[in-house]
Amino acid sequence: METIYTEDNRETSLSSNGIDAAAPALTVSLAAAERICRRIATNHYENFLVASVFLPRAMRQPFYNVYAYCRHADDLADESPSPEIATAKLADWQRQLQACFAGNATHPIFIALRDTDQRFDLRMEPFNDLIQAFLQDQVKVRYQTFDELLDYCRRSADPVGRIVLRLANADSDENLKLSDSVCTGLQLANHWQDVARDFRSGRIYLPAEDASRFGVDLERVDDVAQRKEFQDLLRFECDRAASFLQRGRPLANQVPRWLANDIRLFIHGGLLTLAAIANLHYDVLSKRPKVSRLRQMRLIVAAYVGRLD
What 3-state class would DSSP assign to 149? Predict the structure, then answer.
């Protein structure tokens, strides 16, 4: 645990995820707040580190600040001891978000985010949408229709792309639609990769209407007697996820060059995840599909030298 100093020279500390419980009551300098966000973004999360390689140096701190906000909110949702506590913490995080956009930030992450807002004229809506998705996770663990799942993706995944496009000054209506398609496709790919893990935690994202169509009883997802039907269902869902990713591909040609590589990298990464699922014949219940380290490195190198289409 590392000690930092507030503007009036009081001490607080950094925990493993960046902020301790006392931090929201303290006001740190912008430099200290940015240092905290940078540490959150670079210490633990490989995907973000890879993406940040392609960012111009001047854009890295704004991305660190946004990432720290998203990461901390996600941790409140997933690491709280109960849904009730998570809900209360997320509600407080939402109040601090509103205060931030009103110019009254006190939490270190929001102090950094406030500066980013002033520089890039951010919109509060996508940040708030993320909180709404995390709040929904506390009470909703089943989805009846694919439209319900898409609505969840609209708030759990699409806001990230919208924030990024705002930072790049590339948030035209057309680009926002393409970004939503990419982000939804990535979210769906992640869901289908983690069906078994989610099922063990009591959460099922597979839409009940689709399961019924393929003859799958979602209350018995791991029943070997319906394994063939389950694999057919997952093939259908993976094909649908791939179609979202493919529809979003033109976005890389319509944003600044510094952002294009990241977009291509994430689209190809999502498609590789879906390919890994297919390579297991869609039997994600027996083994979690993973993209090999070698394939990941090849993808990163291809992006770095501009060979991803």
Answer: helix
Model pTM score: 0.88
The answer to whether residues 297 and 207 belong to one domain is yes
Q: Give me the torsion for CA of 49, 55, 61, 65, rounded to 10°.
A: -60
Per-residue model confidence (pLDDT) at position 7: 42
Which residues, 6 or more positions from 143, have their beta carbon under 8 angstroms from its beta carbon? 149, 152, 204, 205, 206, 207, 208
Half-sphere exposure of 188 (CA within 13 A, CB side): 30
Q: What phi-psi label fits residue 185: left (phi over 0), alpha (psi between -120 and 50 degrees) or beta?
A: alpha
Helices vs. strands in the chain: H and E counts, helices first: 14, 2
**Same domain for 86 and 104:** yes
Question: Distance between CA atoms of 235 and 274, rounded to whole angstroms?
Answer: 9
Range of the domain at 290: 140-309
pLDDT number for residue 15? 44
- In sequence order, the 6+-apart residues with CB closer than 8 A to the CB of 219 are none
pLDDT value of residue 221: 82
Question: Can you tell me whether residue 165 is helix, strand or coil?
Answer: helix
Domain boundary among 107, 139, 171: 139
Q: Quote the CA–CA distance of 45 and 93 in Å, as a whole number.
A: 22
Average pLDDT over residues 39-59: 72
Helix axes 83-101, 57-79, angle to 10 degrees: 150
Per-residue pLDDT at 25: 45
Q: What is the total count of domains within the chain?
A: 2
Q: What is the CA radius of gyration of the chain?
A: 20
